[in-house]
Specification:
The radius of gyration is 18 Å and the shape is globular. Helix content is 26%, strand content 29%. α1 packs across α2. It contains 5 helices and 11 strands. Strands 3, 4, 5, 6, 7, 8, 9 and 10 form an 8-stranded mixed β-sheet that branches. By secondary structure, it is of the alpha+beta class.
Length: 280
């Protein structure tokens, strides 16, 4: 399966910049507890499956799917709502410079040791720059960590922003995956943006859509796959009964574990105590 990360970012970026142009991002350095979700029930969702079978999602009545391929699904609501799922880009470890142009596979450079909030900020800055609106910012209201141990650094971000369409609220499920031996890592995220006046009414619906996203196992493993396959650590022993090169076996094991943890912990939102031990 082909995963379009470099050029795809520009298309995702254009959408993101359109949503976030003119907003303000406070670089919160620590993750805090997000406010509880409103009690308003979500509207019923109708399952939609991409024609390439890469992913499915629940779509609220009156919403339109505008893109569905390679695990990426984007949709818009009748009142300016926007949801984008399965976004993945390659990042090179290095100094960050706002407005960097994508270079082949790499969307931009960013220190791997930067905080998760700083990486969120960079994604929106690059999105705005790619759409011709550099300097866009967004206010992060809260961020809740999703504990996935060494599998990925993840959080759920809530925030607000104002653009040409008026004030809006957003939710973003965002992950930074481990860096490979060549200094390249991936960012993976799902996001929903809702007009502020509708936030209390529609937040539960947006969260239901985010949680209903179901990439196929093959798709999600490809989206999470590092550019350079990981090498087994010293002393690692292949599972009994397995055959083949130890490096390939180890890479497959890591891919399976990453899939399980990301699917259950980030997409489905399972509580930490229900996740497999290797996720924590």
């Amino acid at each position: 399966m082909q995963v379009r990360c470099g050029t795809e970012f520009l298309r995702v970026a254009a959408l993101a910049a359109g949503l976030l142009a003119g907003a303000s991002l406070a670089a919160a350095q620590q993750l805090t507890t997000a406010p509880p979700a409103p009690a308003t029930p979500a509207v019923p969702l109708q399952t939609y499956t991409a024609s390439d079978q890469s992913a499915s999602v629940g779509v609220p009545a009156g919403w339109n799917v505008t893109k569905a391929e390679y695990g990426i699904i984007q949709m818009s609501g009748p009142k300016g709502e926007q949801i984008s799922l399965g976004n993945t880009v390659f990042i090179r470890n290095g100094a960050y410079q706002p407005g960097q142009k994508a270079s082949g596979l790499i969307s931009f450079t960013m220190p791997n040791q930067a905080t998760l909030t700083q990486k969120v900020e960079a994604v929106w800055q690059q999105a705005a720059a790619a759409a011709g609106s550099p300097g866009a910012q967004v206010t992060v209201i809260s961020a809740t960590p999703v504990p996935l141990g060494s599998v990925a650094q993840c959080g759920i971000f809530l925030g607000s922003e104002t653009n040409a369409q008026g004030p809006q609220n957003f939710e973003m499920r965002f992950c930074s995956l481990p860096m490979d031996t060549n200094g390249i890592y991936k960012l993976f995220w799902l996001d929903a943006v809702i007009p502020a006046a509708l936030a209390a009414q529609e937040r539960a619906t947006a969260e239901a859509v985010l949680s209903s996203y179901r990439p196929s196992q093959t798709t999600l493993m490809a989206l999470l796959k590092p550019e350079t396959p990981p090498l087994p650590p010293m002393g690692w022993v292949a599972p009994a009964g397995s055959s083949g090169e130890s490096s390939a076996i180890y890479a497959e094991q890591q891919a399976q574990q990453s899939f399980n943890c990301m699917d259950e912990g980030v997409i489905r939102g399972e509580p930490e105590w229900q996740l497999p031990p290797y996720c924590r």
